[in-house]
Amino acid sequence: MACTQDSECTTTGLEVCDETGDGATFTCVQCIESSDCGTTGDDLTCVGNVCVDCAVDADCDAASTEPNCDATTNDCVACVDNDDCTTDEDPACLNNVCVDCTSDDDCPLANAVPPFDTAENCDTTNNVCVQCLDDDDCPVAGSTMGECDEATNACVECDEDSNCADTESCVAFECTCDSAKCPDNIICDTGANPTCSVAVECKAAGDCGNGLTCNLATNVCECDDTATGDCNAIGTCVEGECIPTANTCTTAGDLDECTADDTTCINDDTGNPVCFPTGIRCRADTGEEIVGVCPTNFECPPVPTDASIGANPNCVPVCDATTGFCADYDCPAGFDLLNSCVLNGAGNGLLCQCVPSSA
Which of 142, 177, 199 is the last residue of a domain? Predict the structure, then answer.
């Protein structure tokens, strides 16, 4: 807009008449000097008849996060070049912002995000120093960390199973012994550096014959007392163990029916009489009871309070005075049967008692 004085400049933002031209008619502009731009707010510096943020660094607030003047845009910014970035964490200037890096040269170890033993590579997408961008940046010297996990930019031992040995799987970026990959009937040990070294009866259901199931917690083939078909035709399932049909009997407590040594006729969990081994140790050498090892109708005898009676370490049948259960029970070697029944440790039943053999 043409003018000869300020009062003729009525357009908002163009309220100053620039009388510096050579002609008789001048032009309405925003400013001629910085005082025309006011004293508060932004854009208080006049450059080329326009109010802008700055012309030099002194126009910016030195105490702010944008103390430097970009002379190209006339904006106060954090940085114009690397010299304006004075912290070790963000030493490089990119688009007027101090960043961790713009090239590998900007990556001293102190700049690693997160901290690494080595972090010499600049992730130019995020402008941060990282340990690796691909496998070529690994391994770290003196370690087995030969793979780059590109999600975290960290050198790791593995990021897939193919990075590990044939008997290992990649778990949490570490090659770990995998029992499923060990040879047949071998599982990993529980040491600090597990290997395939423990022999077991089974590792999967298919490893067990005769309708048995592999207990994956113990790696032992077991049968189910309540299931039809377990043990197939070889016998009866008692306490998870198949008892051969040849060892069946008809009367619980009758040892004469059972031909195998150290067996007696007891009722299984379903009430069927079968010959079952009786020489099962249930007490440690220290006298402590090994809980849960005695089969149905057997209990672990109490430690006798009478010093003249020896502690029987094996499971004994529950005493049935009517059938003479104790009379037919074989005691362990070095023990003789005491023909009277004794209260068990809880005082709620009768047990057969064995005593040391007389010299």
Answer: 199
Q: How far apart are CA 125 and CA 102, in angstroms?
A: 9
In-domain check, residue 30: no
Residue 215 placed within a domain: yes
Token pair for 255: 């040892």
| Rounded distance between C-alpha atoms, residue 323 and residue 305, angstroms | 28
Token pair of 335, please? 């023990």
Q: How far apart are CA 294 and CA 174, in angstroms?
A: 42
Range of the domain at 188: 161-199
Long-range contacts of 136-140 (CB under 8 A, 24+ apart): none
Neighbours of 200 (CB within 10 A): 17
Number of separate domains in the chain: 3
**Among the ranges given (26-35, 219-228, 250-259, 319-328), the one the predictor scored with the smallest mean pLDDT:** 319-328
pLDDT tens track for 110-133: 444 454 556 788 999 999 988 889
Per the domain annotation, does 252 fall within a domain?
A: yes
Separation CA 82–CA 71 (nearest Å): 16
Model pTM above 0.70? no
Q: Which residues pair with 77 in a beta bridge?
A: 68
With beta carbons less than 8 A apart as the criterion, state whether 102 and 122 touch. yes
Strand ranges in 127-222 using DSSP code E only, listed in sequence order = 128-130, 147-149, 154-156, 168-171, 174-177, 186-188, 196-199, 213-215, 220-222
Q: φ, ψ for residue 63 (rounded to 5)?
A: -90, 0
pLDDT in tens, 56-109: 999 998 888 999 999 999 999 999 999 999 888 899 999 999 999 999 888 865
Residue 115, pLDDT score: 46
